[in-house]
Design goal:
Blueprint lengths: L1 H30 L5 H14 L18 H14 L3 H22 L6 H11 L1 H5 L7 H17 L5 H14 L4 H14 L4 H11 L1 H13 L6 H6 L7 H18 L1 H16 L7 H17 L10 H12 L7 H17 L23 H9 L14 H12 L3 E4 L3 H7 L4 E4 L31 H7 L7 H15 L5 H11 L4 H8 E4 L2 E8 L6 E8 L2 E8 L7 E9 L2 E5 L4 E4 L10 E8 L8 E8 L1 E4 L2 E5 L3 E8 L4 E3 L6 E3 L8
Parallel strand pairs: 1-2
Antiparallel strand pairs: 3-13, 4-7, 4-16, 5-6, 5-10, 6-9, 7-8, 10-11, 11-14, 12-13, 14-15
Helix pairs in contact: 1-4, 1-5, 2-3, 2-20, 4-5, 4-7, 5-16, 5-17, 7-8, 7-16, 8-9, 8-10, 8-11, 9-15, 13-14, 13-15, 14-16, 19-20, 22-23, 22-24
Length: 665
């Protein structure tokens, strides 16, 4: 009888311990739950979709403003039932994350205690706990990757169809996750015990979800990739070396503030290559390395830890499903050491809900959870009404009542969701705008994931009226083609032809003529307009501390126009136009600063007193004698230069630029 009791206790205790561990993880996830502003970009699409406006950001145009189709569809189904987004999205995220860890630990029970170590790693890593919620796709990515590893660990040769099917779902959740799953899928295909024709058809059938989505995306949106990809990967003048440095800073930031994440990934990679017990995991090593190189190549992300969650989950999955030849006492000591070490960090997820501490921002990489915690942290919802609360939410609610037609915003998530579908929101980062995504960034003070664009002259009027009023003829022609793809009749044969031509790059030359100058001499023909009552008018070109400046008039009047032409080379600038006197000359150019072209207005005969200045600032790069210039530029105004306040503004009514001659189709 006593033996039977011991036997039952021996059988029940692992199940009880598994339940307790999962509950502990669920408690930590819930206590750390929050939402990011970026999640609300998807939420606006979800809201439009559920209310009959299609899978759109602005109902008037078909643009894929989200990177995670599967996650978006899952949220849409839940939102359709609840008609509430805050608690719904958090509930879905928590349910998916808890299911993911339960599956991993359940199938890792036989691995001689490895699952205990795996659960502690997940419990104590900031990258994992922070992004079990946030409203982004990470929890679903974690679940699908865990399922993929479990299926592969079983019998990849016999489960080839299901392996391909799960890989397809991973790709539907986020295309770049293919780097993690395609190497093991490829190895499984190579090892499969069937002829190559059958392998081909099995994999082709298994990959059906992603194949169908790509076809739908190309047909519905007109492009195979999310609009966010076109915006974020279009770095313009950001050199590869700067992106690589930024990507390295992302890894350094993680090692400094969340050292367990990369340490565990590195340890598993080393074990898999040197220890026979993890030999089955070696194809995943290739995938993890590819994904880490990809993160480095694109410059990482501004959200601390977000991109490192998925390789961590993959690595921990391999660990959890592999018996570790370690003495139980050593495993327990290692687990205790991990737990104690993590608790020493003030930003540990085990401490954060009770003692919120934000990571220092370095290289534009921020602790997004800490930033949004007061506004969207779930524990705060228990005692604050209404909730969530944020300035961008209030701005959106106010502008919804005002019934504005078109609004420009740099941070569009919360604002866009709460302003509603009747206001056309132009995303100045290009994530949700099809035209701006294809224009190069013009702000040299960029931050990774935040590449600032500016609306071209006439673009906002075009959106407000529905008539093309873009001033540059090259860009106007390009936009006609683009808007036919994103706004034209869905089943039009002519639209399908334009989709093919747009993706093939047929219209890129028109876009490039507007966006870029690339050559040894930049020519700017301008009409400078005195919009003030100042008497003295100067034209200038400035770069890196020197300027070519010409006095144009000593007795100007409001509304007077001055035609000028600047010819700018790497060695300086020459001026063509009527002038009174040359004041100074421009030294050889340097791409350490912007190239500024504008006019100065003052009431005194020299520049010894404060003066009013209008200028365009052009981001540029030098390659020997060649100038590569982002031609759109940024307009700035200072009423009391050189010590007054600079204000970014549209200076097109003061400095009228002559566009390049348009091409013909």
């Amino acid at each position: 009888m006593q033996d039977k009791t011991r036997y039952k206790s021996h059988q029940i205790w692992p199940q009880v311990s598994l339940f307790l561990v999962v509950m502990a993880l669920a408690l930590v996830f819930t206590a750390n739950a929050w939402l990011s502003d970026d999640a609300y970009i998807t939420f606006r699409t979800v809201d439009n979709f559920v209310h009959g406006y299609g899978l759109t950001w602005n109902p008037s145009e078909r643009v894929q403003a989200y990177t995670h189709p599967l996650w978006m569809l899952l949220l849409s189904g839940a939102y359709f039932l609840t008609q509430e987004i805050y608690f719904t999205s958090l509930g879905v995220s928590l349910a998916v994350a808890i299911t993911a860890v339960f599956l991993l630990l359940y199938y890792g029970r036989a691995a001689q205690g490895a699952w205990v170590l795996a659960s502690l790693i997940l419990l104590t890593t900031k990258a994992f706990v922070d992004y079990t919620t946030s409203g982004l796709e990470n929890p679903l990515s974690a679940l699908l990757l865990i399922v993929f590893v479990i299926v592969y660990r079983w019998q990849p040769r016999q489960a080839l169809f299901w392996l391909a099917w799960v890989a397809a779902l991973v790709l539907c959740n986020r295309l770049d996750l293919g780097l993690l799953v395609l190497p093991p899928l490829g190895w499984a295909i190579w090892q499969a015990k069937m002829d190559w024709t059958r392998r081909f058809w099995v994999v082709l059938t298994g990959m059906l979800p992603v194949e169908l989505w790509q076809l739908f995306s190309l047909f519905y949106y007109g492009f195979p990739f999310p609009n966010t990809a076109y915006a974020k990967l279009n770095g313009g003048l950001i050199g590869r070396e700067r992106l690589l440095a930024q990507g390295m800073a992302y890894f350094v930031h993680s090692l400094r503030f969340d050292p367990v994440t990369l340490s565990v990934i590195g340890l598993v990679l080393v074990l898999a290559m040197g220890w026979r017990g993890l030999r089955w995991f070696r194809p995943f090593v290739a995938g993890i390395i590819l994904y880490l190189v990809y993160i480095w190549w694109i410059g990482g992300d501004f959200m601390s830890g977000r991109f490192l969650m998925v390789p961590l989950v993959t690595a921990v999955s391999g660990l959890a499903l592999t018996p570790l030849p370690l003495h139980p006492g050593f495993r327990h000591s290692l687990a205790a050491l991990l737990l104690a070490t993590t608790l020493l960090f003030p930003w540990s997820p085990l401490r954060f809900p009770w003692q919120p501490v934000s990571l220092p921002e370095t290289a534009g990489i921020t602790d997004e959870k800490a930033n949004y915690w007061p506004a969207t942290g779930l524990p705060n919802a228990l005692h604050t009404r209404p909730f969530p609360r944020h300035d961008w939410i209030e701005d959106g609610q106010k502008d919804r009542v005002r019934q504005l037609a078109v609004v420009e915003k740099g941070s569009v998530g919360m604002y866009g969701y709460y302003v509603g579908p009747d206001v056309h929101v132009v995303d100045l980062l290009g994530l949700a705008d099809p035209l701006l995504a294809r224009l190069p960034p013009v702000d040299p003070d960029w931050r990774i994931g935040h590449l600032g664009r500016r609306s071209p002259a006439g673009y906002l009027e075009t959106l407000a009226t529905g008539e093309n009023q873009i001033q540059d003829p090259n860009l106007a022609y390009y936009y006609d083609k683009l808007q036919f793809v994103t706004r034209g009749p869905l089943f039009s044969w002519a639209r399908l032809v334009e989709i093919w031509r747009m993706n093939w790059g047929v219209y890129d030359p028109w876009l490039e003529r507007f966006a870029w100058h690339n050559g040894p001499e930049l020519i700017e023909r301008l009409q400078l307009v005195n919009v003030t009552g100042h008497r003295y008018v100067y034209a200038f070109v400035w770069n890196n501390g020197s300027a070519a400046a010409y006095l144009l008039d000593e007795a100007s009047e409001p509304g007077r126009v001055y035609p000028v032409t600047w010819r700018i080379t790497a060695n300086g600038a020459t001026f063509a136009g009527e002038y009174v006197a040359q004041v100074s000359a421009l030294a050889p150019l340097s791409d350490a600063t912007t190239l500024n072209i504008g006019l100065i207005l003052t009431d005194v005969p020299d520049l010894s007193q404060p003066y009013e200045i209008f200028e365009y600032r052009f981001w540029m790069r030098l390659a020997g004698e060649n100038l590569l210039v982002a031609r759109q530029g940024m307009g700035w105004h200072n009423e009391h230069s050189p010590n007054g306040m600079w204000e970014e503004m549209d200076v097109g009514g003061v400095i009228v630029r002559e566009p390049l001659v348009t091409g013909k189709e």
